[in-house]
Amino acid sequence: MGTQSGNRPHRPAPADGITWEPSERWVRGTKGDVTVVDSRRPILVWERGRPVPLYAFPADDVRTDVLRKAAKPATGRHSGSTVFYDLELGGEVIENAAWTFPGEQLAGYIAFEWFGRNVLDHWYEEEAEIFVHPRDPHKRVDAIPSSRHVQVEIEGTVVADTRAPVLLFETGLPVRYYLPRDDVRFHLLAPTDLRTQCPYKGTAAEYWSWEGGGGDVPPNVAWSYPDPLPAVQEIRGMVAFYNEAVDIIVDGERLERPVTHFSRSR
């Protein structure tokens, strides 16, 4: 499916469920003040059933001296993984922190748990810190200012109305409508303590829940990025709502609510 010489793989994934391709990015992962991974020749790996990629690294680019064969291997967690490793560093043991893939093509590569687990403290591509998971080179995120008339309703109540939205187009997700704060009726919303991170947009440090009393409306239905990543600066400070949980009307047309993995989490 790929070679270290830089040939690109063919997608979709083969029968073994693993697709991979080489990356030219310099990737580092740290734990405390220790650099555990330092690689200029990582590969991106897509596993069956996982929509986002992960990195794997040549063993020579990994501090294998802080890895031990897992005492309780997490078999079945990854596509055909063969050997799991615990990370032992600074008196701390993190179980099943890393693993290898089967087969000759990925022999000698080690991958680390990332999404949903704080195995390492920080990851960097070149000098930029990245969060949650590696950015997919086959995915685009475009934030485009618009003059469409966008209204947001929750249980029949208009909570936002603007003619100056920013439309965020992200591969594989519905369009998100980011609205100027002056056009949002914040007295109908209650701030929450939730914070989330996105590898493409940065840290969503502000969330709001609906105060209208509806039992069918999930919490944290709106959010904002006060300091987004440079590629999406147009959404700075603006407010978006989950299309999956509210009614959005664009130029007089009520949009159908999409069904995504966010529908399950709302």
Task: Write up what this structure looks like.
2% of the residues lie in helices and 39% in strands. The chain folds into 2 domains: 18-130, Beta Complex (Metal Binding Protein, Guanine Nucleotide Exchange Factor, Chain A), CATH 2.170.150.40; 141-265, Beta Complex (Metal Binding Protein, Guanine Nucleotide Exchange Factor, Chain A). By secondary structure, it is an all-beta fold. It starts with 17 loop residues before the first strand and ends with a helix. The strands form 6 sheets. It has a 7-stranded antiparallel β-sheet, with no helix packed on it. Strands 3-2-10-11 form a 4-stranded antiparallel β-sheet, with no helix packed on it. Strands 14-13-23-24 form a 4-stranded antiparallel β-sheet, with no helix packed on it. The model is unreliable at 1-15 (pLDDT under 50). The longest helix is centred in the C-terminal third of the chain and has 5 residues, at 261-265.
| pLDDT averaged residue by residue | 89
Please give the radius of gyration in angstroms: 21 Å
Low-confidence stretches: 1-15
Going by CATH, the architecture of the largest domain would be Beta Complex
What is the helix tally? 1
Summarize the structure.
By secondary structure, this protein is mostly beta strands.
Record the SSE blueprint:
Layout: E1 18-22, E2 27-31, E3 34-39, E4 43-47, E5 54-58, E6 67-69, E7 84-89, E8 92-99, E9 109-112, E10 122-125, E11 128-130, E12 141-145, E13 150-154, E14 157-162, E15 166-170, E16 176-178, E17 189-192, E18 196-198, E19 202-204, E20 206-210, E21 222-224, E22 239-241, E23 247-250, E24 253-254, H1 261-265
